[in-house]
Model the fold of this input.
Amino acid sequence: MNSEKEVLNAIYQNSKMGVESINTIISKANDSQIRDRMLEDKIAFDQIANNASTLIFKEGGKPEEKNKFSKFTAEMSARMTVMNDNSPSKLAEMMMQGASCGIVDITRVMNHAKSIKPEVNQLATNLLEQEEKIF
Done:
């Protein structure tokens, strides 16, 4: 069973990972359409992370970051991939893979959550909808 704090932290971590991943690869996007889309996604993920952070602080907590090793390996993997292939199709594929992981993660957390506030449920729904837009 996941507490509301765990759900909010999952939302926060998931959306922050989206922001950080986009930051890692956006400079390699030579196609303006894909770059603009990544920027839109980054702004949306950042807003969701900020909303989750606000709710966590409101409840007297502090947002938990993903562990540094996990963040480091994701960043290095993204850097290596775009070094070898920064085509629009590869960048889109990377975005879809990240979104798939995010959807699975937040869905798993929500399926185990018990009795969370409507605003937390709505924020999780917003995150899922944002992840799904990537497809």
